Amino acid sequence: MRLGGRLAGAIEVLDDIETRRRPVADALKDWGLSHRFAGSGDRAAIGNIVYDALRMKLSHPWLMGEDSAAALGYGVLLRQWGYTPDSLVAALDGDRYAPQAPAAVADGSLAGRDLAEAPLHVQADIPEWVVAAFQARFGDNWLAEAQALATRATLDLRVNTLKASRDKVLKALDETGAEAADLAQNGIRIPAGEGPARLPNVTASINFEKGWFEVQDEGSQIVADLVEAKAGEQLLDFCAGGGGKSLALAAAMANKGQIHAYDTDRKRLAPIIERLRRAGTHNVQAHERLADLEPFKDKLDKVIVDAPCTGTGTWRRRPDTKWRLNERNLEERIKQQTEALSGAAAYVRPGGDLLYITCSVLPDENEAQVASFCADNPEFSVASSADAVARLFGASADRFRLDAAGTVGLSPALTGTDGFFFARLRRAG
Ligand SMILES: C[S@@+](CC[C@H](N)C(=O)[O-])C[C@H]1O[C@@H](n2cnc3c(N)ncnc32)[C@H](O)[C@@H]1O
Fold first, then answer.
1. Per the domain annotation, does 87 fall within a domain?
2. What is the pLDDT along the chain (429 residues), one digit of tens a residue?
3. Are residues 254 and 110 in the same domain?
4. Which of 96, 169, 298, 401 is deepest in the core (most CB within 10 A)?
5. 338 touches ligand 1 (CB under 6 Å)
């Protein structure tokens, strides 16, 4: 397929998502099934246009002066893929599948529009009701932070030090453009690629099956590093999900000591068994029932709450969730976080730590949640992570956001990672 056909396909999918409220992955899959002539490169290019469009779902239509799927598709090519109006006309010339251009492209009036005149949430490409929270969290830099969340994310891997070194994995992936990550000590980064470029399918490789690495955002690796899990410690990963943090912590502990992995959702937890096997991890025990944790009350050195959250920090990877988020979801998540924190606190030994993590940048889920937990549980107080950040990240420590109490914030604009929050809450000894 040429560019025009790919653009038309993406516009069809965007239309389907909008008019039938369809999940992106389903809409893309259905398009592929009903257009079997399209090759894998075509499908990848169409997927890229669709995801890029969803990242900038407000600013493209504003600049085009029309709220249509075509405005989104053309917006992607002109504002994200590096085409100029002239080079785009040339690329689509004679292509009978090329969709009709929005009027502002056809008559050239697009050139006279300036995004700086758009409402702030449109410039930021975030829902209007979230602006106040971004301003509270990022101050003067909020717009740049929001715009960084509207860019493509890199593909990040964590080297499993139980099985391989970073150099060994880098060598094995040398055709992918992989490089050592800037911050995470065992991180590897593969560039996001531009335009129609496909990310390499690294999980289809033998080395992935051998357990040499896991796919994990560098921010998620960094918060796991900040736990500073030590060989021999007794840990609980209370919101273990599929085990991303448990696997990283187990490797940091060199398979020594014990990690108990628990999650209320058995279906989310189940894949951990296969992941642990592949990684050669022997010190993680998965628990399906809360009652299994009874013997560990007041006993554990560290309890990790990687809490359910709105995921605002992951908007680069899942731009569709940006537009589904509403105030009711936020309230529900806050309630779940409060429950998870108070449930998990019971297992921390005196003098031990409760580590609170979210992949959100909203203060209500982070700083405010920590403040209200400490007010309700006066045995706990924030222990600063400033020293840990300096110890682990040395000269790069100034890229982290540390608040006065010593909680840590990561974000695409600051650390080049997903947005994360990390707080160490110490139980009095
Ligand atoms: C952000 S996800 C965890 C991701 C996981 N730690 C990882 O690194 O792959 C949050 C998890 O918390 C679980 N959860 C929600 N409420 C909970 C509670 N009260 N107790 C335990 N787990 C809970 C959810 O089922 C979900 O799997």
1. yes
2. 999 999 999 999 999 999 998 899 999 999 999 998 999 999 999 999 999 999 999 999 999 999 999 999 999 999 999 999 999 999 999 999 999 999 999 999 998 999 999 999 999 999 999 999 999 999 999 999 999 999 999 999 999 999 999 999 999 999 999 999 999 999 999 999 999 999 999 999 999 999 999 999 999 999 999 999 999 999 999 999 999 999 999 999 999 999 999 999 999 999 999 999 999 999 999 999 999 999 999 999 999 999 999 999 999 999 999 999 999 999 999 999 999 999 999 999 999 999 999 999 999 999 999 999 999 999 999 999 999 999 999 999 999 999 999 999 999 999 999 999 999 999 999
3. no
4. 169
5. no
User: Are residues 223 and 113 part of one domain?
Assistant: no
C-alpha span between 192 and 330 (Å, rounded): 29
Q: Which of 156, 245, 259, 263 to mutate to test the pocket of ligand 1 (most atoms within 8 A of CB)?
A: 263
Identify which of 28, 39, 32 has the alpha carbon closest to the alpha carbon of residue 1: 39
Phi, psi of 44 (to 5 degrees): -65, -40
Kindly state whether residues 114 and 226 are assigned to the same domain: no
Range(s) of the domain holding residue 57: 3-118
Q: Which CATH number is 243's domain given? A: 3.40.50.150
* Same domain? 297 vs 417: yes
Comparing C-alpha atoms, which of 397, 415, 416 is closest to residue 406?
397
Is residue 207 assigned to a domain?
A: no
Residues 80 and 222 in one domain: no
Task: Determine the distance separating the centroid of ligand 1 and the alpha carbon of 239, expressed in angstroms.
Answer: 3
In the reported structure, the alpha carbon of residue 289 is separated from the centroid of ligand 1 by a whole-number distance in angstroms of 14
Residues involved in catalysis: 359
> Is the ipTM of this structure higher than 0.90?
yes
Which residues does 180 contact at the CB level (< 8 Å), separation at least 6?
A: 166, 170, 187, 188, 189
178 within 8 A of 190, measured Cβ to Cβ: yes
